[in-house]
Amino acid sequence: MSQDETTTTNFIHEIIDADLASGKRTEIVTRFPPEPNGYLHIGHAKAICLDFGTAEKYNGKCHLRFDDTNPEAEDEEYVQAIQEDIQWLGFDWGENLYWASAYFDTMYEYAVRLINKGKAYVCELTQEEFKDYRSIPTEPGKEPPGRDRPIEENLELFEKMKDGGFEDGACVLRAKIDMASPNLHLRDPALYRIKRATHHNTGDQWCIYPMYDFAHCIEDSIEGVTHSMCTLEFEVHRPLYDWILQTLDVFQPQQIEFSRLNLTYTVMSKRKLLELVNEKLVSGWDDPRMPTLCGMRRRGFTAAAIRKLCGIVGITKVESISEIELLESCVRDDLNETSPRAMAVIAPLKVIIDNYPDDLVETFDLPNHPKKEEMGTRTVPFSRELWIEETDYTDMPLNNKYKGFAPGREVRLRGAYLATCTGVEKDADGNVVSIACTYDPESKGGSAPDGRKVKGTIHWVSAAHAIDAEIRNYDRLFTAENPLANKDADFKTLINPDALTIGTAKLEPGLAQAKPGSRYQFERVGYFCADLDHTPETPIFNRTLTLRAPRK
Ligand code: ATP
Ligand code: MG
Asked: Active-site residue 275, yes or no?
C-alpha cells in the first residue's frame, strides 16, 4: 500500500537491517500507540506511515495499541475515529489491536515486582514538594522521606493505594533510581498515581493508574515490539524506558526517536486542537480548516497525497517545520491525476446564443479526464442560455493569454460548439449584464469544420439546468507561519478570520448526485470536494485548493 515507506530507507531501517543481519531479531514488530484523547492529525500520519510502513517493508507486524492509561481525557468517540483515520490512510493492523488498559493487572504485578526488588517505594510528597526534592539538573536532588521504607511496608501501602485506602493524590509509587542523576527523569519518577476516574474500558475497577513512562515500555515489552519508534521529545525518557525493563528483567524493545512533522500556518497538538473545538473557533474536529486527518479528508485532501508528503519529508532526527505548500503540491499532483473533471461557474455571467433554437436541449458526452479514457464520460446538457465566468468576457482583451469572449471574438465552449460574441448588454452603471453570441452549428463537439483555429476554450453551464451550490472556500487556519512562536501570546488570537469564506456557484446538473466526500476538478477553477452534508437538494462543495499554487 505505502510504496513510499516500503521502498525508501532511513536511519531506522538501517538499525533494523543490522539487527536482522546480526540475528538480534528475526521478526520485526512495531506499533502505533495513540492515546484516545483526540483525533489524529497529519503529524500522526508521519508516525503511522513509519510504523506501518516499516512493518510492511520487513514483512513484520504493526500493532495498533490504544495507550489508554489516562481515563479523564479519553473517550470512545476518539477510539472509533482513530481507527477510521488509519484505515483511510491505507493501513491495516489486522488482528493486532491492543489496549494498554488490558495490561493493568500485569502492570500492577510489575510494580509489585519492583517493590520486592527494593526498586520502588510509596511517597507521600505532593507534586510541588517533590519538585523541590528533585531539584535542577545541575544540582543533586534530596532523598524524599520514606525512600528507605522497608519492602513489606511499601507492599502494604501500595496495596492500600489500589484498594482505595487513600484520597486522590495522597501518595504515588516511585521508582527508586538516583536522586542525583543528571537526567531528571531518572530522579525517582512516579510510576503510579491515585485517580478516581471512570475508565472507558475498565470502568471503576481501578483507582490507581500507571504513569505514561511506566506503562509504555511495559506495553511494548508485553507485545514483543522489537523497534518502538517515537518522537524526539522521548529521547530523554529512554534511559527510564530501559531501566524499567532491565530491572524487571523482561523482553526489551529498542526505542528509537525521530523528529516530529510540523507544518507552517497550523498547530499540531491535540490539546491545542481541542481548544479550537471546545471554544467553537472551528466547527469540529473535522472542520476542513483543521490539520486533522478527518478535516483534511473533508476538505478533499487525499490519503495518497498525505503519504507522499510523509515520504518526501523523510525520517530524521532534525527538527524542522515543513512548508504547507509542500503538502498542497502533493495534493494537487494527486488530484490532477485522479479527480474527474466537471464544469462549474463561480462568478456567473449570462450568455444568450441568439441563433440557437429556443426549446432545443442537446447533450454532450464529455470526458471525465483529459488523459484517462478509462475514467469514462459524463453527459452534460446544452441550451440557448448559458452561464460563463464573468472573467471570460472583456470589452478589450489586454494580452494573448486571455481565453474568453470579446466583441467579435470566437471562443470554444468546452466540448460543445464554437461561438462568436455579437453584443453585450450593460446596466446604467456600465456593468455587463449579459452577452449575446451566435454559434456555428457545424462545429459540434467544439472543432471547426474548416479547420480554422480557435484559441480560447472556456467552461460553461446550461442556465436552465444549472444547480446552485454553496461553495466553502478555505485558506490557512492561522495568519502566522508558526502560531506558537510567541510563547507569551495566545495562539488563538492568530486565527485567520478569512480561513473560511462562503460563496456560491452554478454547477453542471450531474454534480447534484455527487457522493459526499467525492472530489472533482472544476475545470479552470480549482479542486473541490462534495461536503459530508452535501445532498442533491442542498449541494455543498468545499474548495480543496486552487488549481495552481498562488504566486508568493
Ligand atoms: P499531540 O502532541 O498532538 O497530543 P501525542 O504525541 O500526544 O500528540 P499520541 O496519541 O501520544 O499523541 O501519539 C501517538 C504517536 O504519534 C506517538 O508515537 C507520537 O510520537 C506520534 N506523533 C504525535 N505527533 C506527531 C508529529 N507531529 N509528528 C510525528 N509523529 C507524531
Ligand atoms: Mg503525547
From this structure: no
Q: Is 35 touching ligand 1 by the criterion CB < 6 Å? A: yes
Ligand positioned closest to the Cα atom of 78:
1
Q: Is pLDDT of 289 > 70?
A: yes
Residues spanned by the domain of 419: 342-462
- 507 Cα–ligand 2 center, Å: 44
Query: Does the pTM of the predicted model rise above 0.90?
Result: yes
**How does pLDDT run across 447-498, given as a tens digit for each residue?**
988 989 999 999 999 999 999 999 999 999 999 999 999 999 999 999 999 9
Q: Which CATH number does the domain housing residue 500 bear? A: 2.40.240.10
401 flagged as catalytic: no
47 lines ligand 1 (CB under 6 A): yes
Q: What is the mean pLDDT of residues 214-225?
A: 98
- Asked if 35 is an active-site residue, the reply is yes
**pLDDT tens digits, residue range 13-43?**
999 999 999 999 999 999 999 999 999 999 9
Asked if the structure places residue 332 within a domain, the reply is no
* Burial (0-12, 13-18, 19+ Cβ within 10 Å), 395: exposed
Q: Specify the residue with its C-alpha closest to ligand 1, atom 29.
A: 260
Output the CA 43–ligand 1 centroid distance in Å.
Answer: 7
Residue found under cell 512548508: 323
b vs e for 334-370, b when ≥16 Cβ sit within 10 Å of the residue's Cβ? bbeeebbbbbbbbebbebbbeebeeeeeeebebebbe
Residue 552 in domain: no
Domain closes at, from 299, 327, 355: 327
Contact, 51 vs 72, CB < 8 A? Answer: no
Number of domains within the chain: 4
Cβ 269 under 6 angstroms from ligand 1? yes
Q: Which helix (H) or strand (E) holds 121?
A: strand 120-123
What is the 52 CA–ligand 1 centroid distance (Å)? 15
pLDDT of residue 1: 45
Sheet holding 29-32, edge to edge: 29-32, 61-66, 97-99
230 lines ligand 1 (CB under 6 A): yes
304/393 same-domain check: no
227 and 316 together in one domain: yes
